Amino acid sequence: MERTEIDKAQEALSKLKDAISAVIVGQKDVIEVVLWALLSRGHVLLEGVPGLGKTLLVRALSRALGLSFSRIQCTPDLMPADILGTNVFSEDGFRFLPGPIFAHVVLADEINRATPKTQSALLEAMQERQATVGNITHPLPDPFIVLATQNPIEMEGTYPLPEAQVDRFLFKAEVRYPEERELVEIIRRNTEGEGLVLPDPVLTREDVLLCQRVVREFPVHEEFLSYAAKLILATHPGRKGAPPAVQKYVLYGASPRGGLALILGAKARAFLSGRFHLEVEDIGRAFRPALIHRLILNFRAEAEGVTPWQVLEEVWEAVPPP
Amino acid sequence: MVVEKAQAVLGKVKFFLRLRRALLALSFSLFFELLLFQILRALGLPLFSPAFFGAALAPAVLAFLFPLRFSRALFWASRRLRLGGKLPGLAAALSRKNTVFLTALLEDLLPPWPRLFVPEVFALLPALLLCGLFLLPSPSPRISEPGLPAGETVSVAAESAPEEKAATPSSARAEKEIPRFPPGTSTFSPYPLILAGLYGEEMTLEEALRRLSEEEGLLRRLAELLGQASAEPGNEEVAQEVAGILSSLRPDLGRTLSQALEPGNEDWAEAQAIVSAALEGLSHLQMEAQGAEGEEGGEVAWGTGGQSEVSGESREPNGEILLDEEAQAQMRQELAEAQEGLGLGAGWERGEPVRPGIPAKREVEAEPTRTAVRPGEGPWRPGVALGLPGENPGEEGNFSSFSPQEVELLLRERPIPPSLRELVRRYFEILSGGE
């Protein structure tokens, strides 16, 4: 890898951010988390009520990246074959007809409405980056990113994702309701002129792969790795150094994937900021999206209305930075 | 090339971190040593020596050599240098030999190294300053200080008062040879030297004051006895008591009085005069010595025993304290009252009849010139130390004479009121055995 390549990757990412921000009003944190996931070769679970622009964000991202995009609207009658694809009989015999999962950017809308069987098939594809239909394994395109959305308030007719499957999402981004100023801008953009215009491609597939490689090679000091490990371990009740809130409200702490997410998110953030070194602040910013969906609280926490973020805040305070 | 550069930067960080730790250790050890020194001094056990403070270097050396947890310290150093996580990033890139990232990190890496030391140096400076103060020569009296190197002289323009000129014609010379004083000795009090010279042995100022007080009591009793003896000569009891007191007095005074009271040739008046003069001298010496305790930074305390200061003094640019007329008048009045209380006029002449209790008053002429007192001058000086009140330590009875010129020099150097200068001259004349 050459220095010029890194500079090129940084420049491309800067353009990407600008292109997405030109379409999406506000939601800077969500955009940032999605980009971290893209650079880290991870997937994102977007949680938010309908109509907040989650789908638009994914579409804008795929357009700006110049990559293929597919959308899966999850419903209870959605079958794994509807996602992965199926073998169809033709004149030449059986032929594999790829499902919507075979795209660079996949939007799994309202993933919690799909049955556990379908969810499982999707999540397996996410993890393995391949889909097995019949006895043939088909690799998924590279880069591959799944952005799944779920509605946090509407629970009827849904199948909440099992914890093990939620863990496969590298980050969870909470899409918040826009502020008044942002809302005004959203209304204006959608009601004037030609309406919403998606951005033109600013990156190529190769650019994205280069950026992913740079993030992988991003040097991280051992102390940062140790810090991430301490943070993960501090979410485990019964562990030395775990704060009282963890001991009291946490049933299961974050998995090792949480540590990966923490470091990868921090590296991606540093690279997006134009730096070649990590700061504690990078880990701090990646802390919430990397761990908030990995903490399983006990009944007491639910009864007392304690949120995972409240517990995580105590964890952050309890572990001193390097 | 990039790798070497990164290694050099990290090596520098490591060295500076060790140095900083050593400085910190030095500050703390110096602080504790100064604390210990003060405690010991308060307990009367001054352990002063450069080696005592030199011992502070040992913890500093240990701190420098002690293993450093570099990976952790690197984060601290990076934050202190306001480089964020650049140094750990550099170390991480170096460990992976990632030259692309090394190049990128080294591009704008300009660590402000002094930042690593700023608070520690501020902590160390006061400690070193205090240490420096303690390393100055001790002001304790040492009459065996080396004398003035032969031949070293300095010319000073004479500015004697008219009465001084009258008393010592030689002092009227425009210039005269006086000893050169070593530099850096202007803040010490001469009184411990004078007192030590009086008793012929080294002692602390407190001890000397106690001895003076005792001697004053003896002299007052002797004055009473001499009065009785002159009224009724041949009183054996009185003669025995006088003999006892004479043996208890300091050698020079005892000898002078013994000569005056030689059996069969007693000169009561002269003995009384000597006792009165000695009392006067003692009183003044005590006053000055106590004043010397109150002196600090070259200020001169005037008044009784240095307890009160004459108001109305002004300071000239060259550091002289000038007493205005009101202050001079007050001072003269105080001295006159003191002399009255002692029963002796300031202008007593040898041979002149002295009646104890009745002061022989003499009109004190007004000071025609301003009295200049140089603060910080006239302290311990090796050149003067030999000539002070005349005794050589360990050689009892072997008085080195004080020439009139040296006496004049002494008078000019000391803040001695003009009215007492004649007394001082007489004092030294008596000490040297001259008339």
Concise overview:
The complex is a heterodimer of chains A (322) and B (435). Chain A is an alpha/beta fold.
Structure description:
The complex is a heterodimer of chains A (about 325) and B (about 425). Chain A has about 325 residues and is an alpha/beta fold. In chain A, about 50% of the residues lie in helices and about 15% in strands. Chain A contains 14 helices and 11 strands. Chain A has helices at about 5-25, 30-40, 55-65, 80-85, 115-130, 165, 180-190, 205-215, 220-235, 245-250, 255-270, 280-290, 300-305, 310-320; strands spanning about 45, 70-75, 85-90, 95-100, 105-110, 130-135, 135-140, 145-150, 170-175, 250, 295. In chain A, a hairpin with a 2-residue loop joins strand 6 (about 130-135) and strand 7 (about 135-140). In chain A, helix 1 (about 5-25) runs antiparallel to helix 3 (about 55-65), helix 1 packs across helix 8 (about 205-215) and helix 11 (about 255-270) crosses helix 12 (about 280-290). The radius of gyration of chain A is 20 Å and the shape is globular. Chain B is built from 17 helices and 5 strands. Chain B has helices at about 1-40, 50-55, 55-65, 70-80, 85-95, 100-105, 120-135, 160-165, 190-200, 205-230, 235-250, 250-260, 270-295, 325-340, 380-385, 405-415, 420-430, and strands spanning about 155, 175-180, 315, 320-325, 370-375. Classes of the chains: A alpha/beta (about 325), B mainly alpha (about 425). Chains A and B meet through helix 9 of A and helix 4, helix 5 and helix 6 of B.
How big a fraction of the residues of chain A is strand?
Answer: 15-25%
Tally the helices of chain A.
14
Strand order of the largest sheet of chain A: 2-5-8-1-9
Largest beta-sheet details of chain A: 5 strands, parallel
Provide the residue-averaged pLDDT of chain B: 66
Distance from N terminus to C terminus of chain A (CA atoms, Å) equals 30 Å
Strand order, sheet with most strands of chain B: 3-4-5
The SSE order of chain B reads HHHHHHHEHEHHHHHEEHEHHH
Low-confidence stretches of chain B: 140-182, 184-188, 294-323, 341-399
How would you classify the helix and strand content of chain A by structural class?
alpha/beta
Question: Helical content of chain A, roughly?
Answer: 40-55%
How much of the sequence lies in strands of chain B comes to: under 5%
Query: How do the helices and strands follow one another from N- to C-terminus of chain A?
Result: HHEHEHEEEHEEEHEHHHHEHHEHH
